[in-house]
């Protein structure tokens, strides 16, 4: 078990709205391929190519029936939206979007090439939802992971940010200055990304 990266992106959609934007995620896949860093190639020395068995269109993962997803949504338990391209997936809660590229928090903090890729993907997802920012946190085992706790309790992005300011201090001033941190060093162990420096 390791500590994974999570981005939290706000949205205001219901399940029907989520279904309606899925084609935009499919269109985003073309940019994801273009942005894909060479260091993350599927086979050493070979650029990543699509695997038709894995690269399914983005879709709601239906737990039983679409009606079950509607019920889960009303109860605030969230529903999954997945696109198996390159292991990227999106998990939706009642008022928050979670994006997990399946990578480790340490990789995001320490690998500039990979971090740029993830930030570009997050910006693309934020644009689909009309969001102005994303919050980057570790998923567990660190003080900044309390941002995830707020979200899993159906809190808002603003509430998660407030909890982290109280618990951890200020966020990193840039994505390149996020620190790993521990129970003693909590400042700058998360980041609020407004994408201002991305081209």
Provide an overview of this structure.
The protein has 199 residues and is α+β, with helices and mostly antiparallel strands. It has one domain (5-193). The chain contains 6 helices and 7 strands. It has helices spanning 15-35, 66-74, 105-110, 112-129, 146-152, 157-168; strands spanning 5-10, 59-60, 79-82, 89-92, 96-100, 134-138, 191-193. The chain has a 7-stranded antiparallel β-sheet with strand order 2-3-4-5-1-6-7, with helices on both faces. Mean pLDDT is 77; it is low at 50-54.
Key descriptive features of the protein:
7-stranded antiparallel beta sheet; alpha+beta; 199 residues
Adjacency order of strands in the biggest sheet:
2-3-4-5-1-6-7
Q: Which whole number gives the mean pLDDT? A: 77
Based on the structure, what is the oligomeric state of the protein chains? single chain
Backbone structural class: alpha+beta
Radius of gyration: 17 Å
End-to-end separation: 35 Å
Number of helices: 6
Principal-axes geometry comes out as: globular
Number of domains: 1
Residue share in helix: 25-40%
| Low-confidence parts | 50-54
Strand content: 5-15%
